Automatic annotation (TrEMBL), chains A, B:
Belongs to the LOB domain-containing protein family. It comes from Rehmannia glutinosa. This is LOB domain-containing protein. Coiled coil: none annotated. Signal peptide: none annotated.
């Protein structure tokens, strides 16, 4: 995503917003001129450039890339699914967790039963003597 | 969340935005006067009232409640965790899925081994004859 507002060409965010990109542009390090505008378009549509700018200002510089990535993910998910957004992914994962927990419980019960059966078999030769 | 802009008192969104709540207010059915303003404050801070209003207009009326709930969830998560927002919950669930899948694989291997052992034991009395 890396870009810069100092090379003369605007970053992806400023390109989308059709504004001059300055050396202080908060978006420049994360939105390149090529793929940046499309990603920023989704972010702007869902969150608004101004809200995201304010958010980034309140996040340490070292964490801003992660903040941009997660905001971009949420924005793109909301455009794909306007009703549930990325929460649909969350629901799917919750269902998968519930299903796997059920499998684990079932197999634990099977293993416990096997242990009981195994014991009966292992003392069988002794009983036969 | 149910509220109305027709009873005279503004809905939670209009109360927060300090504006007159009309009978056509798109937020009124989902933001009551009591808890509504606090929830709407988070939504407004993260997404902006105008963006959410546009989003709801593009969602069928029957799905708007779910859209408001998921937007409220994302907004509140982003306020709690400005870097990862609700994506942190997603990461946690992905880790839980990976852990449970590991457990299932391990137990499947154990059950398969038990089946082999069980076979050896079950033919033991025959071999002793």
């Amino acid at each position: 995503m890396a870009a810069t507002g100092t090379t003369g060409s605007p970053c992806g965010a400023c390109k989308f917003l059709r504004r001059k990109c300055t050396a202080e542009c908060i978006f420049a390090p994360y939105f390149c001129s090529e793929q940046g505008p499309a990603i920023f378009a989704a972010i702007h549509k869902v969150f608004g450039a101004s809200n995201v700018s304010k958010l980034l200002l309140h996040v340490p510089v070292s964490d801003r890339c992660d903040a941009v990535l997660t905001v971009a993910y949420e924005a793109q998910s909301r455009i794909r699914d306007p009703i549930y957004g990325c929460v649909s992914h969350l629901f799917a994962l919750q269902q998968q967790v519930a299903y796997l927990q059920g499998q684990v419980m079932h197999m634990k019960a099977q293993l416990a039963q096997n242990l009981i059966d195994h014991h009966s078999f292992s003392i069988w030769p002794v009983l036969q003597e």
